[in-house]
Structures are given as C-alpha cells and as structure tokens.
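Hi all, long-time lurker, first post. I run a small reading group and we've been trying to get comfortable going from sequence to structure in the token notation. Rather than ask abstract questions, I figured I'd post a concrete chain and ask someone more experienced to write out its structure so we can walk through it together at our next meeting. Sequence below, copied exactly:
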Amino acid sequence: MFFTSVQYHFDSAHLLRNYKGKCASLHGHRFNVSATFAFSELDELGISTDFGILKSNLKSIADSLDHCFLNEKPPFDKLNPTAENLSMYFFQELKKTLTKGKITKVTIYESPTAWVEYTE
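-- Answer (accepted) --
Happy to help. Here is the structure in token form:
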C-alpha cells in the first residue's frame, strides 16, 4: 500500500457558536490542511497518483474558504465551523474527487501546536 499526502493552507475567520470561551469571539487562523490517500497499485511509470491532481483538488476546496467568514459559508452557516467539522468537510469533498485510490485521513491544523485528524 502506498500512502500519498498533500498539504495546503487557507486563511479564514470564524467564531464558535454556543461555546463558552475565547473562541466564541470572532477570530482568525491560517488553517493548514493535510490529506492522505492510499493506493494499492502503481502505474506503468511507477507512480501511485499524480501529486498535481491531488494538490489541485485540495487547493480548490481550500480556496473556496480562503479569506472569508466561515460562519457565513455553507455548510458552516448551519454547521459549527470547528476544526473537527472542517476536517470532516474536507474529507467528504476530497472523496468526491477521486477516480482511483481512497482518502484515508484529513488533518486540520489550527496552529502549529493544535490539530484534528478525521478518518472514516
């Protein structure tokens, strides 16, 4: 099995609804997103997948959330924009883009010292 990962980032503001603490106030993050995919076969060149395609798909999703107020962007206008929900959202959106292999994990870093991993 080959595990291939790509990473990208986006900057957004959010606040956590019904949270008792500092994160209930409007604040921002440079979110780093890492996605890992599993492939069982290599092509005739000895490559599991094209990094460029994976990066492009991740960038497309991240760019749709870049420099915005997450609480106003679907699905986070209804779903609390927590790191947990962001990781699940990226996982589900990336899963839709695959033509081979499978996505195994998405990690959202809110800071260099705090992150969430999501897998199914």
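A couple of things your group might point at:
The chain has a mean pLDDT of 96.
The chain has two helices and four strands.
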